[in-house]
Amino acid sequence: MNFATDAFSLYARPSPTFAAKLALSREQLRAAAAHGPLGTVLLANSLGAEDMVLTHLIAELDLPISGFVLDTGALHAETLALIERIAVRYGQAPQVFKPRAEAVISFVSQHGERSMYDSIAQRKACCALRKLEPLERALAGKTAWVTGLRREQSDARAEVPFVEHSPGKPTKFNPLAEWTQGDVWHFIQANQVPYNPLHDQFYPSIGCQPCTRPIAAGEDIRAGRWWWEQEGSQECGLHVKQES
Ligand code: SF4
């Protein structure tokens, strides 16, 4: 029996309409770049496979969209190493935003390092201080941001639009909304895009170390994220639907 051991063997299968999807994504990235003055349109780069595709496309199209990373203080070393690999390959590293040290120290001393497993409320409190607050800082004064959200990723993301408008907030562009996991990995393979080596070890979706595990054959692609919680609560809050 042949056991596939790399992400390309596991996932790279372009859909029949891949070329059309790619053309549309390029159009949407151009639209995002034109949405605001220079320096006000950003890529939220989680260092996941989708955001590596977007990093490549933005560089290929030479668009004035710079990236930022939320370094929660709990990422895998393999994930953090991608920041330098992006700089080497594309000539510019994403800007790194970290949580406020005093907030993390206070939270951990009060609740411990593993309180995310105690309750959804504790887990969301950790996400709020390590992700949401730094995201707010990253997006302050910006006009638009680009994400790698895809409808296929989960039920909660099944209706992700290409563009989300919300009063008082930056416009959100999701150029890969229609892409499948197979499309993403086909693009990465075809263009030799750098990616997190953990994807070769059955981690299709990677977040913070305590909240990510590899998945077994047949499990859902998001099954390795917050696996101890019920489906439906498994979002960190970065991508809750923007109410208008
Ligand atoms: S994903 Fe886990 S470790 Fe990361 S911020 Fe959320 S609860 Fe904390």
Written overview of the protein:
The protein has 244 residues and is α/β, with parallel strands linked by helices. The chain has a domain at 7-97 and 141-211: HUPs (Rossmann fold). It is 36% helix and 8% strand. It has 7 helices and 6 strands. It has helices at residues 7-11, 18-33, 49-60, 77-90, 101-111, 120-139, 181-191, and strands at residues 41-44, 66-70, 95-97, 144-146, 163-164, 171-173. α3 crosses α7 (181-191) and α5 (101-111) runs antiparallel to α6 (120-139). The N and C termini lie far apart (52 Å). The mean pLDDT is 93. Bound molecules: iron/sulfur cluster.
Helix-strand pattern? HHEHEHEHHEEEH
Helix content: 25-40%
Low-pLDDT residue intervals, each spanning 5 or more residues: none
From the 3D structure, determine the CATH topology of the domain at 7-97 and 141-211: Rossmann fold
Bound molecules: iron/sulfur cluster
Which class do the helix and strand fractions yield?
alpha/beta
Rg, rounded, reads 17 Å
How confident is the prediction overall: mean pLDDT?
Answer: 93
- What distance lies between the first and last C-alpha atoms, to the nearest angstrom? 52 Å
Count helical runs: 7
* Main beta-sheet strand count, sense and barrel state: 6 strands, mixed
CATH superfamily of the domain at 7-97 and 141-211: HUPs
CATH top level assignment of the domain at 7-97 and 141-211 = Alpha Beta
Please identify, by name, the CATH architecture of the domain at 7-97 and 141-211.
Answer: 3-Layer(aba) Sandwich
Question: Strand content of the residues, in percent?
Answer: 5-15%
Shape: globular
Biggest sheet, spatial arrangement of strands: 3-2-1-4-6-5
How many beta-strand segments?
Answer: 6
